[in-house]
Amino acid sequence: MKKIILFVLMLTILLNIEKVNASFCCEDPQTGQEKCFSGGQCCNESWYFSCFHFDMWVEPTRGIFTVGKQTNVNLYIHNLCPYPDNYNLTFNITSGNPALIKVDIMGFDYIQDVGPGEIRMVYPSITMLESSATGQVFFNATSEGNSTVQKNATLTVLPSESPVSLPEFDIIGLVFIVLLVGIIYFLNRSEN
User: Fold this and answer.
1) Which is more confident, 62 or 172?
2) Span 96-155, pLDDT tens digits
3) Does residue 81 contact residue 149 with C-beta atoms inside 8 Å?
4) Residue 165 burial by Cβ neighbours in a 10 Å radius (0-12, 13-18, 19+)
5) Could you tell me where the DSSP H helices lie in the chain?
6) What's the confidence (pLDDT) of residue 20?
7) Across all residues in the chain, what is the average pLDDT?
8) What pTM was estimated for this model as a whole?
9) Cis preceding linkage at 82, omega within 30
10) Extended strands (E) in the chain
11) What is the pLDDT, as a whole number, of residue 136?
12) Measured in whole angstroms, how far is the alpha carbon of residue 55 from the centre of its chain?
């Protein structure tokens, strides 16, 4: 009787071990072969490091921006998982004087429905408020499917060699404004 109980117990243990190992057995997306893995996740019957995995980068990675001019940069999100995902985008200016660099991600702070394998490009804008301003803009994206999966990209802002005054206020523009005000003044005075 002890042998039968021992046999049933051993059979139960072996079946449970097989079920535990089977949870990590699925198709390798690279080779298409059925394999068992010690970690990761099985998604859509294929093994992935994570069912919610993506990559992110910014172009350019370094830049000189014109003072007072809103300039778009390209921020890419590549969904590497087998499911569509949404991403929350934030930024932080990590060095330099944050008050002199204006970053606008309005409309791009929540990126929706990025399909499997899709690369989505968004266009945050950078505005320099002073020519000597420098810093690093640190972008962070978080997967909505798994909030522990995050990626970062950094844009380095270099000092501008452009003049501080904007082009519409050069000497010719100033003379034109003075002449225009004078003409309006004399026309208005002659009507009275």
Assistant:
1) 62
2) 888 899 999 998 899 999 998 999 999 999 998 888 889 999 999 999 988 888 999 999
3) no
4) exposed
5) 2-22, 171-191
6) 45
7) 81
8) 0.63
9) no
10) 25-27, 34-36, 41-43, 46-48, 54-59, 62-64, 71-72, 74-79, 85-96, 101-104, 110-114, 119-122, 125-128, 135-143, 150-158
11) 94
12) 9
Quick one: what percent of the chain has pLDDT higher than 90?
38
Q: How far is CA 7 from the centre of its chain?
A: 57
**Number of CB atoms found within 10 A of residue 65's CB:** 21
Structure tokens at 87: 């991403």
Chain centroid offset of residue 135 CA: 18
Closest CA to 118 of 58, 61, 76: 76
The confidence score (pLDDT) of residue 19 equals 45
Q: Which two tokens stand for residue 59?
A: 């172009």
The whole-angstrom separation of Cα 54 and Cα 116 is 10
SS3 77: strand
Domains parsed from the chain with CATH numbers: 2-46 (no CATH), 51-165 (2.60.40.10)
Write down how long the chain is.
Answer: 192
pLDDT in tens, 21-32: 444 566 666 676
End-to-end alpha carbon distance in the chain = 123
